[in-house]
């Protein structure tokens, strides 16, 4: 009897041990889950990528990547795949990576929350309305004595307006803009015009810039005319193959002293040379705002099948960059850095517990609006 009671106690002790071990295993599983949640909060590229392991139907579809500004911002037009569940900003992540000219690797990352972006995530449909004419930014170069196009990267324009067309004949006086009246300078200023040109059909188009002094023209990210330097009012042509529809167009111009002028013309096998008409030039509504403020409505929950737009800014991803102890210039992976050094960038977009979308890109030109992907 004593022996049996001893065995019963042993059995009870063994059961308690099994319960103890099971509880320990459960605690380990809970701890592992907490560690994984902590990794998500930490937001390293590795932890973000590890999230893309289960529901691959949850995935981001990229429609376009373009230059938001020359310094360090990229615009992303995207949507959740139709099979995805609705997501909040803390479930979506971006990673921007590149090598600098010395071969050092850099990575920046963040999520899609409003708090982590200068420009809040918003529906792209808000920005799809096109307004005639090009956005025109004028810069004061007084006292600079430029002999070639000055770098406008990260400079704040002194005047922002809309030009119906680019048609300033040679004059020794001041320019009269279409919407702001006379410029305040007759000499030493720059113009940067940007927007879209509506191409009527696929084909080869000839563009002409006639300028005094230097000018350059990019169409669909391609440098078509390079007419830089000090010179009198003279034309220069270039050809480019374009697809039907809206293509990005960017012009840079500077005037030193003396007479000034800038005219943009085009021609194709289907029509003779003419000044590019207002009807063919457009810009997005929010490129020019009366208060110089963007009025997008912030989105915090993203639905599948709806097209959204975000602006990726390295400054916002700086808290998660690699080489934590280093002081890094913000534009390390920015458009100007990549363009001027012939470097490639990489972007990855991850849905938490879902799929990852990856793409690499080059920057044919750092001007805002240039399409990259």
Would you kindly provide a written description of the structure presented here, covering whatever features stand out?
- The chain contains 4 helices and 25 strands.
- The longest helix has 41 residues, at 2-42.
- With 373 residues, the chain is an alpha+beta fold.
- The protein has 3 domains: 2-42; 49-121 and 298-361, Immunoglobulin-like (Sandwich); 129-287, Jelly Rolls (Sandwich).
- It is globular and about 65 Å long.
- The strands form 6 sheets. Strands 7, 8, 9, 13, 15, 16, 18 and 21 form an 8-stranded antiparallel β-sheet that branches. Strands 10, 14, 17, 19 and 20 form a 5-stranded antiparallel β-sheet that branches.
- The model is unreliable at 1-18 and 29-42 (pLDDT under 50).
Helix content: 10-25%
Taking all Cα atoms into account, the compactness measure Rg is: 28 Å
Please work out how many helical segments DSSP would assign.
4
What is the H/E string?
Answer: HHEEEEEEEEEEEEEEEEEEEEEEEHHEE
| Uncertain parts | 1-18, 29-42
Strand content: 35-45%
């Amino acid at each position: 009897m004593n022996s049996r009671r001893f065995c019963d106690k042993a059995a009870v002790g063994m059961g308690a041990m099994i319960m103890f071990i099971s509880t320990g295993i459960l605690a380990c599983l809970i701890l592992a889950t907490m560690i994984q949640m902590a990794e998500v909060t930490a937001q390293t590229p590795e932890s973000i990528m590890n999230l893309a392991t289960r529901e691959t139907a949850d995935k981001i579809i990229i429609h376009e990547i373009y230059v938001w500004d020359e310094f360090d911002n990229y615009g992303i037009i995207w949507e959740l795949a139709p099979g995805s569940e609705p997501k909040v900003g803390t479930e979506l992540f971006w990673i921007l990576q590149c090598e600098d000219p010395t071969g050092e690797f850099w990575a920046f990352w963040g999520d899609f929350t409003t708090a982590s972006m200068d420009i809040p995530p918003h529906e792209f449909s808000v920005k799809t309305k096109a307004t005639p004419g090009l956005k025109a930014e004028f810069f004061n170069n007084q006292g600079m004595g430029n002999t070639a196009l000055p770098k406008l990267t990260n400079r704040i324009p002194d005047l922002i307006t809309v030009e119906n067309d680019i048609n300033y004949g040679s004059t020794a006086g001041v320019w009269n803009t279409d919407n702001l009246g006379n410029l305040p300078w007759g000499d030493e200023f720059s113009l940067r015009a940007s927007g879209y040109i509506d191409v009527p059909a696929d084909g080869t188009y000839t563009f002409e810039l006639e300028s005094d002094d230097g000018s350059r023209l990019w169409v669909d990210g391609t440098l078509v005319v390079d007419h830089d330097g000090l010179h009198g009012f003279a034309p220069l042509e270039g050809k480019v193959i374009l697809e039907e529809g809206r293509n990005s167009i960017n012009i840079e111009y500077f005037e030193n002293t003396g007479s000034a002028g800038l005219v943009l013309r085009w021609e194709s096998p289907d029509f003779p040379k003419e000044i590019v008409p207002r009807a063919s030039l457009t810009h997005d509504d929010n490129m020019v705002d009366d208060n110089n403020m963007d009025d997008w409505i912030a989105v915090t929950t993203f639905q599948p099948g709806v097209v959204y737009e975000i602006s990726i800014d390295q400054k916002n991803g700086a808290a998660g960059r690699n080489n934590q102890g280093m002081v890094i210039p913000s534009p390390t992976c920015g458009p100007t850095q990549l363009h001027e050094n012939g470097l490639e960038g990489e972007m990855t977009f991850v849905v938490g517990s879902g799929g990852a979308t990856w793409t690499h890109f080059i920057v044919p030109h750092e001007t805002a609006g240039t399409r990259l992907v």
